[in-house]
Amino acid sequence: MSEAEQESRSEGRRKLSRGARQAQLIEATIATLAKQGYARTTMGEVARTAGLSHGLVNFHFETKEKLLSTTLVYLSDEYRESWQSALEAAPPDAPDQIAAFLRADFDPKICTPEKLSAWGSFWGEAQTRPMYQEHCSANDLYYTSTIEALCQRMNDEHGYTSDAILTARVLRVVTEGLWRDLMSMTEPYERDEALATVWICAAAFYPRHFGPQGLLGA
Amino acid sequence: MSEAEQESRSEGRRKLSRGARQAQLIEATIATLAKQGYARTTMGEVARTAGLSHGLVNFHFETKEKLLSTTLVYLSDEYRESWQSALEAAPPDAPDQIAAFLRADFDPKICTPEKLSAWGSFWGEAQTRPMYQEHCSANDLYYTSTIEALCQRMNDEHGYTSDAILTARVLRVVTEGLWRDLMSMTEPYERDEALATVWICAAAFYPRHFGPQGLLGA
Amino acid sequence: MSEAEQESRSEGRRKLSRGARQAQLIEATIATLAKQGYARTTMGEVARTAGLSHGLVNFHFETKEKLLSTTLVYLSDEYRESWQSALEAAPPDAPDQIAAFLRADFDPKICTPEKLSAWGSFWGEAQTRPMYQEHCSANDLYYTSTIEALCQRMNDEHGYTSDAILTARVLRVVTEGLWRDLMSMTEPYERDEALATVWICAAAFYPRHFGPQGLLGA
Amino acid sequence: MSEAEQESRSEGRRKLSRGARQAQLIEATIATLAKQGYARTTMGEVARTAGLSHGLVNFHFETKEKLLSTTLVYLSDEYRESWQSALEAAPPDAPDQIAAFLRADFDPKICTPEKLSAWGSFWGEAQTRPMYQEHCSANDLYYTSTIEALCQRMNDEHGYTSDAILTARVLRVVTEGLWRDLMSMTEPYERDEALATVWICAAAFYPRHFGPQGLLGA
DNA sequence: GATGAATGAGCCTTCATTCAT
DNA sequence: GATGAATGAAGGCTCATTCAT
Fold first, then answer.
1. What is the mean pLDDT of residues D207-215?
2. What gap in Å lies between CA C183 and CA A191, rounded to an integer?
3. Which residue is nearest to nucleotide E7 (CA to C1')?
4. Residue A39 is nearest to which of B127, B177, B184, comparing CB atoms?
5. Which of A93, B82, D140, D160 lies 20 to 30 Å from A77, alpha-carbon distance?
6. Which of A62, A77, A98 marks a domain boundary?
7. Segments forming the whole domain that contains residue B23
8. Which residues of chain C have pLDDT under 50?
9. How far is it, in rounded angstroms, from Cα B195 to Cα B81?
10. Is C177's CB within 8 Å of D181's CB?
11. Cβ partners under 8 Å of residue A144, min gap 6
12. Which chain B residue shows the shortest CA-CA distance from A198?
């Protein structure tokens, strides 16, 4: 990105490879969605944000819908890759995996105000629902089944008894809800505090591991 | 609504009081937001949904923004009144109050797919944030401080020790997140299951009162 | 039209009934097709020709295609009505009917440079062929079968022997070809001379009736 | 064309002589005009049809207008050369010359659906009239004066009395009209039948030569 | 009050043309 | 010669808003 940015600031006329321009335009789309909202995200505004002509956006993406769906796929895949690699890097024990999961959701690379706002645009706009289903449901199902399996392992391997499906759902919606706070509040709390909030929730369900005495206690 | 509906079906030309027409148009706005999303909610579509003429919407609301902000205020106030009266009707003890609170959030009158979708439109659309702040922040602050006070009373009066602010936040964002599930899933679970989910969350924090053995156990 | 013209020249703001505005816009479309050709006939140009805003064209016709097809239907029906009433007004004998037919094709109301040019736009543009088929083939088939029947009657009732189908086709394409001359030549001959040309063609096939000695001789 | 086709199928990158590339692009332009019509004939579509890159069209023709006018000149000259060599190959007597003329108009090389459609695009499009005048009027005048002279010779040398100018015009517009039938009908008659039609027209004017008993009778 | 014709700003998209590579 | 990225004018269409009736 840094190269693309530098490029757009200095000249903007030089030719760039297809991939580099598309990445640049996806960045501009995320920024525009965050700043203007879905309804006011126009091709012209995206082009202006990128410092390019509006014709170029169509040259690379053909339609507005393709630009938006590509952006959504980009966000969705980046998010999946983030928590996947976090899980791989963490110890295999269920509590460690859940801890890595929660930390990944509030990773500074993923949990930026811009990206959260862009997510919010897609979530809120009824017309994007088919698009969302088409491009994100696989990732979302994967996410849900992964955390459900981990909650089940907390019961099987660590002696907890809460309903795994519902507990997993709570952990997921708390994360989403905290994201919504971060993106919509005029003066939101810090990412750290959001992580602390989901942590006390995990502690409520799994006190021996996430509570003050637990090894994973904040 | 029944009166308004009857009206629009039979004649649509009879003069109606200011208030009745406005209510009719707000209903139509909610329905349109839910069906089309924010970006495709046009004055014409609202008028068509209401079975009224194009110009009449402007006659009653002057601008699109006023129509939308009035609709938002309507939703926000209806919601506040719902949980307020639920609290008043419930026993004054903190656990009963919290239980009433949670039940009110999934009351069939409030928690309809249409209204949830309309909420989602306002939440997701960055451009509505100033409008949301202006019209809803008072209600939202009231909601937050009420539930925070109740969580504090759970500590003070019933011997729990969780952080009241964060616990209240968890209960709020779980509710919001479950709403989002209900509005966006193609085949969402039932309202009952959503209530059960927030309930096990409350049980995790307040096991003696919301857990299986508690008097309020589902 | 006179009222509409007067209207558009003086004010252009007064409201007009749906039908009157649509007629005015169809006139403007014909004029634009004649002046600019199909490819440069834009909604904006039609609106400018009519002295109205471009939004109004969409208000009345929704799409450019509907505007053009309505215009085509208008031309096609006007033409059919013209020759039909000419046939009705003429004596029933086959030569008189054919004579009336030919005269109708060069009637000053039908055979104006503007309308001929508009016809030419539809004929020449491959993309309008489906539209033409849909809206004009019935009228065209009616035209063809009528003149074929008359040519057959010339054989049956007046002792000629030429192939009725082919003769009818010659009369039709001569008319069309003369129209093309009138619309495309920089200095075309007069309508009278066009009529004289088709007449000597009829005389070649039916000399006793259309020739110099015939009662219908020019 | 075969060479150009082979070229574009195999490699498309090999350097080709200026003339060969231009011929290839003219063929592609004719094909595009026939398939898409004038209004939708774009540089990109021509390039795609030719299997070449976008920029190459501009490299060879500079502007769209030059591409189109070159194509028109190509068609016009090819047509003139066709009937000229037909006249040269035919006996010098006037009836033979006229017969050769008519046959040349429906020669399989000239009278293809694609070329007729391309002609139609130029005829119908008012904006091309200046271009047509500039590039084709000489050929057209030559055509007209040639056939008028032949009709005059039919009177002078073979005892007919019809008006030579008007008869020549009839023969010309019948040909043009038959072409229009061939290009626009969904299920047109065969080229043979078109030739038969113009033949009976000639027979009507010159029965002793083109009629059933005439030496040139079909 | 109520209707719907009328306006014009703004959007998405197409496309001729230019030009760096 | 040849490619394809890049530009910007222009077109079709939508829609909030105004206003005569």
1. 82
2. 75
3. C53
4. B127
5. A93
6. A62
7. 3-62
8. 1-12
9. 20
10. no
11. A168, A169, A172
12. B170
Among all residues of chain C, which has the CA nearest to that of D181? C173
Alpha carbon distances (Å) from C145 to B132, B170, C137, C159, C175: 70, 81, 12, 20, 16
Q: Say whether both B57 and B70 belong to one domain.
A: no
Alpha carbons D125 and C125: distance in angstroms, whole number:
8
Size of interface C-D (CB pairs under 8 A): 133
Q: Which segment, A186-190, D110-114, D167-171, D182-186, is predicted with the most confidence on average?
A: D167-171
Whether any strand E atom is under 7 angstroms from the Cβ of A146: the reply reads: no
Q: Is B107 exposed, middle or buried (0-12, 13-18, 19+ CB in 10 A)?
A: middle
- Our measurement of CA A57 to C1' F7, in angstroms, reads 11
B20 touches strand E (CB under 7 A): no
Query: Given the structure tokens 């602390």, which residue do they identify?
Result: A196
Q: What is the dihedral of CA D16, D17, D18, D20, to 10 degrees?
A: -80
- Which of A48, A56, A71 is CA-nearest to residue A131? A71
Token digits for C160?
């000629």
- For residue D55, give the CATH number of its domain: 1.10.10.60
What span, in angstroms and rounded, lies between the C-alpha atoms of D126 and C183? Answer: 9
Task: Return d(Cα B218, Cα B205) in angstroms, integer.
Answer: 15
Give the separation between CA A49 and CA A52, rounded to whole angstroms.
8
Residues A107 and A204 in one domain: yes
Number of helices and strands in chain C (H, E) = 11, 0
- Residue at token pair 């791989």: A88
Q: Are residues D124 and D159 in the same domain?
A: yes
Of residues B212 and B15, the one with the higher pLDDT is: B212
Q: In 3D, which of D146, D84, D180 has the Cα closest to residue C181?
A: D180
Identify the burial level of D102 via C-beta atoms within 10 angstroms of its C-beta, where 0-12 means exposed, 13-18 middle and 19 or more buried: buried
Q: Do both A23 and A72 map to the same domain?
A: no
When divided into structural domains, chain C yields a total of 2
pLDDT at residue number D2: 45
B54 touches strand E (CB under 7 A): yes
State whether the beta carbon of C63 lies below 7 angstroms from any atom of strand E: no
CA separation for the pair C11, D100 (Å, rounded): 61
CATH number where A167 lies: 1.10.357.10
- Cβ atoms of D154 and D206 closer than 8 Å: yes
Query: B154 and B48 in one domain?
Result: no
pLDDT tens profile B145-169: 999 999 999 999 999 999 999 999 9
C193: its two tokens: 């001379």
B180 touches chain A (CB under 8 A): yes
C-beta of residue D11 within 8 angstroms of C-beta of residue D3: no
C138 token code pair? 């019935």
Q: What is the pLDDT of residues D118-158, one digit of tens each?
A: 999 998 887 788 889 889 999 999 999 999 999 999 999 99
Tokens of A74: 């980009």
Q: CA of A121 to nearest chain B CA: how many angstroms apart? A: 5
Which token pair is B128?
A: 């509505």
Residue D87 contacts residue D143 (beta carbons within 8 Å): no
Nucleotides of strand F within 7 Å of the protein's CB atoms: 1-21
Structure tokens at C125: 């543009």
Q: Are residues D84 and D55 in the same domain?
A: no
Q: Which chains touch B (3 or more CB pairs under 8 A)?
A: A
- For strand E, give the nucleotides within 7 A of a protein CB: 1-21
Of A62, A87, A112, the position where a domain reaches its end is: A62
DSSP structure class, residue C189: P
Closest among B170, C104, D190 to A174, alpha carbons compared: B170
B28 and B91 inside one domain: no
Backbone φ and ψ of D37, nearest 5°: 85, 165
The answer to whether residues A71 and A41 belong to one domain is no
Residue of D nearest to C166 (CA): D197
Q: What is the pLDDT of residues B168-186, one digit of tens each?
A: 999 999 999 999 999 887 7
